[in-house]
Amino acid sequence: MSLSTLALDLLVRKRCWLLVALAALLSCGCHTVWALPQGAPETVCDTMLPFHAGGSVLPENSVSPFSIETSSSVVGQGQTLRIDVTGVPAGLSFGGFMIQARNRNPPYQIVGQFSPSRDGTVKLMNCENSVNNSATHSNAGPKPQVSIDWQSPVDFLGQVVFNATVAQSYNQFWVGIPSNPVQVVRRDVSSAAPLPTSSSPNNYNNNNNFNYASTRSPYVPPSFVAPNAVAASEDSFYDGCGQSKNCFGFPNGCVATKSCTSVSAVTVRGDIYEFELRSGKGTNAAYVALGLSDDGKMGEDLTTECVPENGRINLYSSYTSANPYSAVRVNVPQNSARLLNASLVDGVIYCKVQREPLTVVQGRSFDLRNGAYHMLVASGSGLKENSVGYHDIGRLPSGSPINLAVVQDVGGSSQLLVRLHGAFMIAAWIGTTSLGIIFARYFKQTWVGSQTCGKDQWFAWHRMLMVTTWTLTVVAYILIWVELKRAVWHAHSITGLITVILCFIQPIGALFRPGPNDKKRPYFNWGHWLGGNLAHILAIVAIFFSVKLPKAELPEWMDWILVGFVVFHVLVHLIFSISGIASDRQQSQRINTFQMGDMSHHQQHAMRNGMSMERKMDAPYAALRKGLLGVYSVVLILFVVVLILLVALAPIEKLFE
């Protein structure tokens, strides 16, 4: 071999190695989207779920930057519709995808057929023994948009939703991106109405191949952004409760009547733990959540939150704190749970979540296999930044901790202490306090000369009633502390606390009451009057606030009963006051009938004796006061009984279902 030939051969080999090295460098250094070159396999027709890194890479649960758009919202039987898979904003590339059209109603079967694309970017799939009813990518290269033609079936009428899996990268992919619903109608009545652009949220992942799992549960298309999508119906949600899954919601006992304001369900199959959550219709819930708690109280609980945001349901895991109350998402592993299905229909939130059997949060382990936990369902109408708001719609823990794998009838915790607290407060502040104030204010000149235990009748009754108020109030306050075990601050608790303080110091102040002729007596009288009336008013206000408390489960129309009591109470005070003015005027006329200056000493002495005798007699209109007191007492008892029944039997609406 000549020297020139050898040099040429080395140069060619060097160039080849340079080209190989350059290709390797480009393949490693460029940010591309790699997907399974031949597209998704037909073994994943049911799941549409990529199987990246052996399943350790989970789908995104954030808003997707990709949307599924249709050329029309109505299509006739056997007619063709164009489907576009695009990025938002326009130009955002993706590598892998899979798309199907499914019946919007159960059993969610795949319908219709896709046509081959002109540019060769689409590979057709045969799912459920049907030809070309699904489509995937034919190459893994980046693409800003894919357009596919879909032909509707000739034997189907109803709504379909296109659902897609889109992979932006190996580590970032979204499953179940929905289109807006498309109505399939008879061909002779079809009218191709344009469909507004969808801005549904869902995502994909980055590394090597876009693989799919074939070992997951069948895919049920979610309806994240479909404006009229159908959430899990009440009947289907409650199917299997107590037989194949644990169900729990509030108000207590609502699962049996299928009437929960918020409800949860847990299904366990081996190491697969699936949680379902649903808010009630008409509650305007901003979130629905389920906590796993050791003690049934808020604090140090692992919580699953389903929150509507930007037109879809987002899933969050949080860890609750009791002091102050909060649900914190920071430092809580968000990949310990993934969203399987969700919908937001007419304000009703529904989500289905799969959670890992073991989750460690801030050094604490939540072991679903071996642990027993209280189920704690909550929902509220407000959100905070990066957190849910107060559970003003409702909250209820299960009565005892359970192993989630053991199917049973789950009941709520006892509300006995809450009911007793409410009943005692109503009896004290609407019953005994109201009557005690009437005695002290209007009956000092009635039953004159009659005594009980050495005290005038008005004072004996006033003291007995107010001691009863004090006792009931203190016991009720202790009961609610035993129930809550911590301070909870809101309008009801603040006004109630001030009331309890005023109530507590009233009898203590009475022990140091100055004598009748002491110059400090007027100050005591005014202070005692002000403290008692202020406590009474604040107590009534606190009872009004209690109607809004989710834990009380009181009907909103209870407000009108309370308004009726206030009106009646004020009206009776007005009548008593008018009769008191008339009585004072009549007594004054009796005294002024005689002019003391024109009387002899004997006449003045006789007059003083007459006035002394008059003070031992009831003031004028005593019969009216006694009759009005009887009417007031009967009506007051009726108010108290009705209100206590509403508290004790809450939620009262269940009795009439």
Give a description of the structure.
It is a single chain. With 657 residues, the protein is an alpha+beta fold. It has 3 domains: 147 residues, Immunoglobulin-like, CATH 2.60.40; 178 residues, Cellobiose dehydrogenase, cytochrome domain (Immunoglobulin-like), CATH 2.60.40.1210; 207 residues, Four Helix Bundle (Hemerythrin (Met), subunit A) (Up-down Bundle). Helices cover 33% and strands 24% of the residues. The chain contains 10 helices and 28 strands. The strands form 7 sheets. Strands 2, 4, 6, 7, 9, 10 and 11 form a 7-stranded mixed β-sheet that branches. Strands 18-17-16-15-23-26 form a 6-stranded antiparallel β-sheet, with no helix packed on it. A hairpin with a 2-residue loop joins strand 19 and strand 20. Helix 4 runs parallel beside helix 8, helix 4 packs antiparallel against helix 10 and helix 8 runs antiparallel to helix 10. The radius of gyration is 38 Å and the shape is elongated. The protein starts with a helix and ends in a 9-residue tail after the last helix. The N terminus is likely disordered.
Properties at a glance:
6-stranded antiparallel beta sheet, Immunoglobulin-like, disordered N terminus, 657 residues, single chain, alpha+beta, 33% helix, 24% strand, Four Helix Bundle (Hemerythrin (Met), subunit A), 7-stranded mixed beta sheet
